[in-house]
Fold Alpha-1,4 glucan phosphorylase.
Amino acid sequence: MVLTTQSFEEQLTEKLRSLRGTGVEEASEKDMYYAVASIVQEQLSASWQDTRKHYDKREERQMYYISMEFLIGRLMENNLQNCGLLDTCTTTLKKLGFEPELVYGQEHDAGLGNGGLGRLAACFLDSVASLRYAGHGSGIRYRYGLFEQRIIHGNQVELPDYWLKEEYPWETRRADESLTIHFGGQVIPHKRSDGSLEFSYYDTDEVQAVPYDVPVAGYQNDVVNTLRLWSAELAPENTDILADAEGKYYHHLDHMHSVEQISGFLYPDDSSYEGKELRLKQQYFLVSATIQNIIRDHKTRCTKSLKNMHEKTVIQINDTHPSLAVPELMRLLMDEEGFSWDDAWNITTKTIAYTNHTTLSEALEKWPVSMMENLLPRIFMIINEINERFCLGIYYDKPAFRDLIPRVAVIADDQVHMARLAIVGSFSINGVAKLHTEILKRSEMNDFYRIFPEKFNNKTNGITHRRWLLQVNPGLSSLITDAIGRGWVEQPSKLSTLVRYSNDSPFLDKIADVKKENKKALADLIRKRTGITVNENSIFDVQIKRLHEYKRQLMNIFHVIYLYNELKDNPMMDMTPRTFIFAAKAAPGYYMAKEIIKLIHHVASIVNNDAAVGDRLKVIFLENYNVSLAEKIIPAAELSEQISTASKEASGTGNMKMMMNGALTIGTMDGANIEINDFVGRDNIFIFGLSSEQVHDYYANGGYNAKDMYHADDRIRRILDQLYGGEFGSQEIEFKDIFYNIMYNNDPYFVLKDFDSYIDAHELAESRYRNHRQWQQMSTINIAHSGKFSSDRTIHEYASEIWRLSPVPKA
Ligand code: 26W
């Protein structure tokens, strides 16, 4: 149903009255927000129901994307846009005297993810629905999302993110579809009359998984899929006894508390693994609820029998976090549905596919056998058997690989290796960029690649251009549409026709004007949040991502220090002014990352307050990086810092977002940077540093000595001496640990080794920037090739090569 501006306004008035008890004149922005959300949710509801019915009627094959993280950010503008109401709503709000941005800004970000992996899941859901695929997300409804970051005297302080403080208008609780999850207890085997074994469970702790559904609307296509988020609650039967004697009462309150903890908070660790029992509980909770739900769905949508489950269902697991899906599906098929091991294994390994997102060894999940055994006794038995059968299978059927067994066993040195479980139990294993997949095949997972070469494939990541271009950068979007028509919105590959405009002066001028506007808006935000006025004609040089040593924010701030030193030595130096913009959260327990945040702040306070520098150099750290902040920074970015130690960044997705908004990349040959380079060509990107092979070679054979760099390069020595001497700290605050890590840990991320070529790349970038026309040309070429990095392309590949899904025809 299309709403006219007039009927939209009428509905708004009615919603304000009925929901908020207020009229337009007295309404606050919050009132307006809820009124608009309610209209949108109603619009979506009808299509939501129709979509479900349509899938049921066609017995459609469904994809379920299981992920511990969905970093969705705000949904208001996204949902308005996808139901074709964004312009109507924006116009109406303005007419009624409201600032639309402030109204939409009332929504608290749903920060149910750490970074790349969680945001990727959110982009994927958008593309799946927009391309008319029958696919859904399944995750956890954490009561607290990723912590809020405050910076106090340069130190990161974490505050809880209670995002559900006010009603979340997009979710619907479906208590009637709750499921029971069992933890702990005893497993007792019984012999059936045919001699086979049956297992029953005793004394388990029961937890209710209550689903909350969030609609996932496709772009103006009437498809509404579902993101189902599970909340842990005490089963209602178990809460009745609360009324007992006082002692028991408190006991039960404690119990309730510990049950609710399961969906209490998101673990704030990115790329590092800790064997915490509560996290294992979360993983099993998510997996068991999802698989039970899938089985129930199958029975209502298709047949009572699960024999053909793998024809009607495919499950994609987002990293190893949900890899208990393998034993859980086995358990349900055998213990609840009566399948034999072989039949259950056949179905399971034809249903589950696994995506790997990192090769960092510190991120590999391994659970202690004792923990798994106590918490999930039946699941552990099944993993044991999977392991035994897998190892025996190699021993007898693939004797050539016998010597690999100790390295591929799912259970080894008293630990369950989750990546190995995921590989053995799934039919597809994919990396997230070409280089990443090659590294998996050639080194990290080479043993498995030799055993199962056919399972491995690449799916280079992508981002939804509907949010990351159309929605966040309306100026650039209409400029593109004016030039090449609207086709790119449905088919982002059409952006490539923009290449024709890379010599069109009026177009290039407009590209420059749009960037200028966006920079102005960001400068305003910076002024509001930090009190610092930046030079709007400076180069906006942006590094926004989780803080991690391999991402080398340290190298970036070293470069700032280098420029500062140059300016101090030569105050008349001719340089293009620069504004360095950082935003990053550090994992709360990651000491070195927090030191780097502190260093950035201390360098900033010196550089920003040095009158001799003026507005030629500014360092801005924007606190509490999240999706909404990214949406404001990215359209204004000119230089995109993608400077990881080669081989360490699986793909990166911020690189794609900034490219799509016309920023040029300064980066290493790592992750998807390599593919960006392939498309735009060497002349339209600033590449520097060691290759992944060189990095690999140094790790394997040595030959790099950080101290040599210190002695050989005056610029480097000066910076390190300044650090050691406390020049960027005060008496108490020094950065000696950063110094030691580089000098005595031999600079594990090759910051010094790549520094010289990094400076060169920056100098080249600066000289290109001075030639405005050339810069705008390069920028246009980047935008033109960014269509390849739309998650629509990625999802088409997943759908045809892994999921075997076709777009569902309209009803
Ligand atoms: C168990 C602790 C833990 C938590 C998160 C281990 C590993 C992770 C993730 C795999 C980290 C992550 O987000 N990886 C990023 O995934 C993105 C999407 O594929 C890639 O673009 C990034 O390069 C990769 O770092």
About this structure: The chain has three domains: 1-58+75-93, 59-74+109-459, 494-690+754-792. Residues 114-117, 120, 269-273, 319, 357-358, 363, 365, 432, 461, 649-653, 671 surround 26W (CB under 6 Å). Residues 1-58+75-93 form one domain.
